[in-house]
Amino acid sequence: MALTPRVAFSCSLVSCLVLQVIFEVIDKDIATSQVSGVVAFQLGLRDGDATARALAAWSAHDTTLAGFALGLDFLYMALYSMTLSTAISWLSRTDSDLLRSLCVALPYTAAAFDAAENMGTLRVLLGNGSAVVRSATYACVITKFVFLGLSLLYIMIALVVAGVWGFAKPSGSQGSDSEVNALYEAPCMAGMPCC
To answer: From CA 157, how far away is CA 71, in angstroms rounded?
Structure first.
């Protein structure tokens, strides 16, 4: 079987879902009254007291599992950025190559901030987390979620547009039938259910 964009997208999407389940299992295992998991720990990094309480609540085993999850997250970054950028590329209907390139770059930018966030979190887990490291890591967490949110927003809007324009060409539309068909087929190519 050839590695087509559709196969690559499907494999990366399934891999992302499998890793998400693994992360949920790890988070459930390390959850305490102080912190519910790795992401919650990262979101609490701006508060030094909360970070100290969370670290004190975790056993050495829990800290090791959190570090393992952060290491596994590097694979997750590659997979989610590829999955989201492929979906954006398929659904992009702009004539501007610059705009399309910027939108496709959103998930990769999120992954870059995710990598910086993980490095900072690992420093904190190892006991080297100064206030500057914690603040910078927290900023990376927020920035990552902004870029991921923009990526997902673009995909949702593109799917709505593809659905609206794909089912019937509105009267007075300037688009050709092939352009309308291309809009409708984009979600199908992305593995989305089509009518």
So the answer is: 33
Q: Please report, in angstroms and rounded to a whole number, the separation of the first and last CA atoms in the chain.
A: 27
From 90, 99, 98, select the one nearest 183 (Cα to Cα).
90
Taking each helix axis as running N to C, give the angle between helix 177-189 and helix 131-167, from 0 to 180 degrees, rounded to the nearest 10: 130
Which residues, including other chains, have CB under 8 Å from residue 110's CB and lie 6 or more apart?
80, 81, 144, 145, 147, 148, 151
pLDDT digits (tens, 9 = 90+) for 149-168: 999 999 998 888 877 665 43
Question: What DSSP line would sit under the chain, residue for residue?
Answer: ----HHHHHHHHHHHHHHHHHHHHHHHHHH--SS-SSHHHHHHTTT-HHHHHHHHHHS-HHHHHHHHHHHHHHHHHHHHHHHHHHHHHHHH---S-HHHHHHHHHHHHHHHHHHHHHHHHHHHHHTT---HHHHHHHHHHHHHHHHHHHHHHHHHHHHHHHHHHHHH-PPTT--S-HHHHHHHHHHHHHTT----
**pTM metric for this prediction:** 0.78
Nearest residue to 77 (alpha-carbon basis) of 16, 160, 159, 23: 16
Q: How far is CA 105 from CA 30, 95, 150, in A?
A: 33, 17, 11
pLDDT in tens, 77-108: 999 999 999 888 888 876 678 888 899 999 99
